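[agent] plan:
  1. take the single chain provided in the ticket
  2. run structure prediction with default settings
  3. attach structure tokens to the ticket
  4. add a short note for the reviewer (M.T.)
[agent] executing step 1
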Amino acid sequence: MMDILNELSAEIAGHSMLSWPVVFFRVAGAVILSSLIGYERERRDHAAGLRTHMLVGLAASCYCLLALDLVGRDFDDDVRLDPLRMIEAVTGGVAFLAAGLIVFTRGEVKGLTTGASLWLAAAIGTAAGLGVWLVAVLATALALFIVGVLKSLEKRVD
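[agent] step 2 finished; step 3 output follows
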């Protein structure tokens, strides 16, 4: 019985080179940072709000953690891994999602900022998933400044 429990424990733990507390911190950090941008979008009643941004950040961090896990595994010499492909896949997937938010109606383009904020949420999730916290936090702070403070300044100037 103990052998079975040890085997199941090893299966649940996976093959990650990172400890579970680090994995949890990176995933939670991606969700929290992405939610800050999503909350601002939600507060302004835009199509992609809190939950969408959180899910994009979560997905990006998960893909990066999976890439890190794959890089740390022992494969045959025939298997070639390029972790940059994971970032390209996240970028391409989210760009497709963000493009769906952009609409052209009555000679006016709408949804560009929300699409860009989703793309940024993926970058923040990617940075958190890779443990590059300075980039993740700085990008979040700058995003909040851009979509919050600059929007207020634009309204005052107009």
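[agent] step 4 note for reviewer: The helical segments are 2-13, 20-43, 50-72, 83-99, 112-130, 133-157.
[agent] ticket updated
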